[in-house]
Design goal:
The complex is a heterodimer. Chain A is mainly alpha-helical. Chain A has 14 helices and one strand. In chain B, strand 19 (356-365) and strand 20 form a beta hairpin. The chains are: A mainly alpha, B alpha/beta.
Chain lengths: 268, 417
């Protein structure tokens, strides 16, 4: 092993693999602490999207009467609220993860990307717990079984990719610019309205469609919903674009992270 | 012998501008709009300046130097926590670095869970931790509480747990920073013996410490870092002796303290000179065990100070503080000192030190402020004497640091049954 003033890109990947055990220990720590500290524990992962579903069913289902293509609004909303809750929980956690683990960064060596990545991976447990409720709601509305439902867990991949990209970018910027943390809630709020959590992207006028799909959450969330609702099928083109944009964001975030990570211990 | 560590022309520059509080996005954006770079942001300090050395496999090397000399920076560079501005580091084998005990401990997790977490943070594999779990718990002495969240642990238990994990790492190369400076005497002993085990296990160890006795004990070789540069790299006793002698440069200028640069305090009062006198008030240059000692401190007051406390400490040649005397301790109350020059005399009734070289530190302070602080500024040699009518028996460095005047008396004979 050697350290020089010049970084070697290959070593980055190699080091990440070498430290995989620490990565899983950090995921395990985050999950464990989260479930230990809260009174309701795992129930919390369901209560949050479920309550939001009730509120949205009133506001958008009854009052605004949003077109769901015939699906009952509660399941229409819950199918996107589960992945959205994951995103909303993981991104700020990852974005602040380097700062909140400053002690580790300044005292021990390990590939720094482990920290934000473990934050976004830990959120999957909540996702899994909240998904069980989706099954209950689907049974309640007598949604027929379909092959597309198998896509539900697979769709996690582009979602995690995108959440990790945004989380890493925020995390690295957060070390250098301490006022970045104030922009995270603002970003999340904007994303909530720009992503089809409470509405269907088909409601968006055609001329905005291209711009809309620059947000990978559009293709990802709509696919999550389509995999459950029988009246809707997955738009593979939109999902492909979303995955490509998320991948590009990830590459960008990784390059920026890689370029700045050597200064983290000096700045933090 | 194969090389374990090879450091070539290692330099680390910190830009002061980057470390200041201006790292706010809004300011960075504002600066981008301004024309030209602001020159003051380009100021840099060299935490390490062209340091090169080699360490063979199995060597145990001490690293000493004043605070801020660059010792910790060196360790952080070697452990890859931070990266060099220029130069190369080559380390062969599995590295573990111990810059803090119990890094990453979490209050809500149990002792057992924290062993796994801390172990993996220190670079241990889960398999290794599984194998050594019992030993670690045993070493820490927390068997009863191992499934209790560590928020219920005492600070001593945490420390023991942290060190127990660290002591069971199995690296080829180990970097240790000052972890022994914490904990009670018992614990320090345990740590030192664990360090000794590491040494006899054939590992390469780099050990940063202020504890000269520990360094001399554990490390045959010592590297001295001074103001970012490698100042000496040789046998420990030689390096430590010349390191400590730099604290007493003042001696050569006849105890003139005005030229001492390495001093603390805000300067409202400064020591200017120290004189040693004998019983008759004549200058004294020889200090003898068991004899009285009179010290006259001359000082310059730059601003009026109320209730100052003037103190002096005596250190052994390895840096251990032996004793401290002060006006506060003696109940000698100084209402105030006025601007101008002044002096104060300290009389030690009997110098109970064994013959050896000692270092003096002195300071003036109040509860709120430090006015002047001089560490190890004067070296004195204490000679043997006949002060206790014993022809110098028992007066030798090998008998310890302090000579204790004592009397013995045999009890009445006890009849055999």
């Amino acid at each position: 092993m050697s350290v020089t003033a010049r970084p070697v890109a290959v070593e980055w990947l190699y080091e990440f693999v070498r430290y995989r055990e620490l990565f899983f220990f950090l995921v395990w720590r985050d999950v464990k602490i989260r479930y230990k500290q809260t009174l309701l524990g795992a129930a919390w992962a369901i209560i949050q999207p479920f309550t939001l579903m009730l509120v949205a069913s009133f506001a958008f289902g009854r009052v605004a009467e949003i077109d769901t293509g015939g699906a009952p609004y509660p399941i229409f909303a819950y199918a996107t609220l589960v992945p959205w809750s994951y995103f909303q929980y993981s991104v700020p956690l990852a974005g602040n993860s380097l700062i909140s683990n400053a002690n580790l960064i300044s005292k021990v060596y390990f590939p720094r990307a482990i920290i934000p990545a473990s934050s976004t991976l830990g959120g999957i447990v909540d996702f899994a717990v909240a998904s069980t409720m989706l099954v209950a709601i689907a049974i309640y509305y007598r949604i027929p079984l379909s092959l597309e439902m198998l896509m539900w867990p697979v769709l996690l991949l582009p979602l995690i990719l995108f959440a990790t990209a945004i989380g890493m970018l925020f995390a690295a910027l957060n070390v250098k610019f301490r006022d970045i943390k104030y922009t995270i809630p603002f970003f999340m709020q904007s994303m909530l309205f720009l992503s089809p959590v409470f509405y269907s992207p088909s409601l968006v006028p055609e001329k905005w469609a291209f711009l809309l799909h620059l947000n990978p959450m559009v293709g990802i969330l709509d696919s999550f919903r389509a995999s459950i609702l029988p009246a809707q099928t997955i738009d593979w083109g939109a999902l492909g674009i979303a995955t490509a944009v998320a991948g590009a964001m990830f590459a960008l975030a990784a390059v920026y992270f890689y370029r700045t990570e050597r200064t983290f211990a000096d700045l933090i | 012998m194969r090389e374990a560590i090879h450091v070539e022309h290692l330099t680390k520059r910190y830009r002061l501008g980057a470390l200041r509080h201006e790292t706010m996005l809004r300011e960075a954006l504002l600066n981008a709009f301004r024309r030209g770079r602001r020159k003051e942001d380009e100021q840099a300090i060299l935490a390490l300046n062209d340091v090169s050395f080699k360490v063979d496999e199995g060597e145990v090397v001490g690293i000493i130097g004043r605070n801020g000399a660059g010792k910790s920076t060196l360790l952080k560079l070697l452990s890859k926590i931070t990266y060099p501005t220029s130069g190369r580091i080559h380390v062969r084998g599995r590295v573990a670095s111990l810059i803090e005990v119990g890094t990453g401990f979490h209050d809500e997790l149990t002792g057992r869970e924290n062993i796994y977490l801390n172990g993996s943070i220190l670079g241990m594999r889960k398999k290794e931790i599984d194998q050594r779990l019992e030993q670690i718990i045993d070493f820490a002495g927390v068997a009863k509480f191992v499934d209790t969240p560590i928020k219920r642990y005492s600070s001593g238990m945490r420390l023991r747990l942290g060190f127990a994990v660290a002591a069971h790492m199995d690296p080829d190369v180990l970097f240790v920073d000052e972890v022994l400076a914490v904990g009670d005497a018992d614990f320090q002993k345990k740590c030192l013996s664990a360090m000794d085990d590491l040494r006899s296990g054939g590992r390469t160890v780099l050990f940063v410490s202020h504890n000269m006795a520990a360094i001399e004990n554990l490390c045959p070789r010592t590297i001295w870092i001074d103001a970012g540069k490698l100042r000496a790299d040789a046998a420990s006793d030689k390096v430590i002796a010349s390191y400590l002698s730099t604290f007493s440069d003042a001696q050569r200028s006849g105890y003139d303290l005005t030229k001492v640069e390495n001093r603390g305090g805000n300067g409202m009062i400064r020591f200017t000179r120290v004189e040693f006198l004998d019983e008759n008030g004549d200058p004294a240059s020889v200090f003898r065990c068991g004899e009285p000692m009179r010290v006259r401190f001359h000082y310059q007051v730059n601003e009026r100070v109320k209730n100052p406390d003037i103190a002096m400490a005596i250190h052994s040649d390895l840096g251990t503080r032996i004793t401290t005397v002060s006006t506060w301790q003696a109940g000698y109350y100084i209402p105030s000192v006025e601007p101008g020059a002044g002096s104060i005399d300290l009389v030690i009734d009997s110098l109970v030190l064994q013959p050896n070289r000692y270092y003096l530190s002195m300071w003036i302070s109040t509860v709120e402020e430090w006015y002047d602080v001089l560490d190890h500024c004067i070296a004195i040699d204490v000679e043997a004497s006949d002060a206790h009518d014993n022809q110098g028996r028992g007066l030798h460095p090998k008998w310890g640091l302090v000579f204790t005047p004592s009397r013995w008396s045999l009890g009445p004979p006890v009849a055999a049954r």
